[in-house]
Amino acid sequence: MAVEPDGLDRLWAPYRMSYVRGEEGEPGDDTCPFCTMASGGRQSELVVARGELTFVTMNLYPYNPGHLMVLPNRHIADYTALSSAETLELAELTQRAIAAIRAVSAPHGFNVGINLGGVAGGSISQHLHQHVVPRWGGDANFMTVVGRTKTLPQLIEDSAALLREAWAGQGE
Prior knowledge:
This protein is an alpha+beta fold. It has five helices and five strands, in the order H-H-E-E-E-H-E-E-H-H.
């Protein structure tokens, strides 16, 4: 059976598969990268803020500059399995994430959401994470539409530093 072309170019990024699989360290190690971050391990420099039960981190593969994720410290996949305290803190840190992004880059809007399960788009569906994506009018410009390429005008580390500063300025 012939496969119909979909008109999309492919950018092969095989290095990303270890991240998608949650591999850390040696091949076959299935440590969750979010749990590693939560415990201060690899990529914890991307963490912007910590609560008692949850934390906020930069997305390593952002849709837009300032793309944050809010996650429970606990390795849990289903939103309905969060405790009341985790649910509350996740919501509070999401509000603070939105405020910090607004202070840093004044987006026109946001996408905030959770992809539950791999079929819903969750690349690491075993550890719940809520996306907070800043949006601007025209952020899906000709490069994205015609060139099928996303441009990101700021390094993740620079975004993280600005957001940490804005977060600290919010106080408690």
